[in-house]
Amino acid sequence: QAKRIEESYVSVERTLVLVKPDGVARGLTGTILARVEAKGYKLVQLKLVDATRELLERHYEEHVGKPFYEPLVEFMLSGPTAAAVFEGNRVIEGFRSLAGTTEPTLAAPGTIRGDFGRDWGLKVQQNLVHGSDSPESAEREIGIWFG
Ligand code: UDP
């Protein structure tokens, strides 16, 4: 109980949310953003972006060299991405909780990836959404996508 109260601190944050090309192509952009808004987070920026390789190289710099890096970039180049900034108390952690774990098959029902994400099969990189994982990443990523 003490730990629960300790964790319920107030921390108004911003996070970068991406509806990746699979989500946009499947017509799920509105559905996904509506879930985030319904949770009470405030939409503060929104645009559709045809990402370039240069932008993606910066965004995914921590993954450069990993086996899934090149297919991930190719996937992210395959169509437009909806980029959004949401604001709210503990929104960074809160959005990742709404999104569910990275692999859609394992993501809990009720989460975005759990409800709409398709089994990875060979297309390991498709999981509908991205959300920043720390305040530092959020600041960096918002700068990359919104300048
Ligand atoms: N990814 C992948 N294969 C992996 C791990 C990650 O294709 O084995 C892709 C997937 O699209 C994921 C992204 O790379 O969302 C970034 O990976 P990260 O570990 O940061 O996952 P996330 O924070 O998006 O859940």
Automatic annotation (TrEMBL):
- Which positions in this protein are listed as binding ATP? K20, F68, R96, T102, R113, N127
Tell me its EC number(s), please. Answer: 2.7.4.6
Gene Ontology molecular function:
kinase activity
This protein's UniProt keywords: ATP-binding, Cytoplasm, Kinase, Magnesium, Metal-binding, Nucleotide metabolism, Nucleotide-binding, Phosphoprotein, Transferase
This enzyme catalyses: a ribonucleoside 5'-diphosphate + ATP = a ribonucleoside 5'-triphosphate + ADP; a 2'-deoxyribonucleoside 5'-diphosphate + ATP = a 2'-deoxyribonucleoside 5'-triphosphate + ADP
Is Metal-binding included in the keywords of this UniProt record?
yes
- Transmembrane stretches, start-end: none
Residues of the active site are H130 (pros-phosphohistidine intermediate)
Q: Which PROSITE patterns match?
A: NDPK, NDPK_LIKE
The UniProt similarity line reads: Belongs to the NDK family.
Subunit and partners: Homotetramer.
Recorded protein name is Nucleoside diphosphate kinase
